[in-house]
């Protein structure tokens, strides 16, 4: 179920499990979160196969030092996952691919559309997993990313 994010061998899996460290906890959480969508496909993000994430969300917000609120989020992506202004396209690609693997929770509907939230685990370029919250908006058959940020895991059950 974890595909490329799973340990590469049984021996590596056993070492990870025995360590009972942060990476093991993230892997268990990741497995539970991905299982939710497999158990109930109706929880998929609407139009996930055609969802988009605008360049501006990365270049003009997350990795733009002039945007204080966004840049602080971008610094977290850089330090934990290794993404920055020079490789932001890889972060976008990972977000769009991972969106297909996790359930989405409907938040609210307003004049801009229906908001959804996904809690995903991204592994990034450094191999250090991170809990990432991705906000999406869906309207008139289109879905686009509205925000992305890292958040500490509140308990390891969700």
Give the CA-based shape: globular
Q: Give the radius of gyration.
A: 16 Å
Q: What is the number of beta strands?
A: 4
Kindly report the average pLDDT value: 90
The helix-and-strand class reads alpha+beta
Describe this structure in words.
- The chain is built from 5 helices and 4 strands.
- The protein has helices spanning 10-19, 22-39, 55-62, 68-81, 88-98; strands spanning 105-110, 113-122, 130-139, 142-150.
- It has a 4-stranded antiparallel β-sheet.
- A hairpin with a 7-residue loop joins strand 2 (113-122) and strand 3 (130-139).
- The chain is globular.
How does the SSE layout of this entry go?
Blueprint: H1 10-19, H2 22-39, H3 55-62, H4 68-81, H5 88-98, E1 105-110, E2 113-122, E3 130-139, E4 142-150
Summarize the structure.
This protein has 158 residues and is α+β, with helices and mostly antiparallel strands. The chain is 39% helix and 22% strand.
Features:
about 160 residues, alpha+beta, four-stranded antiparallel β-sheet, about 40% helix
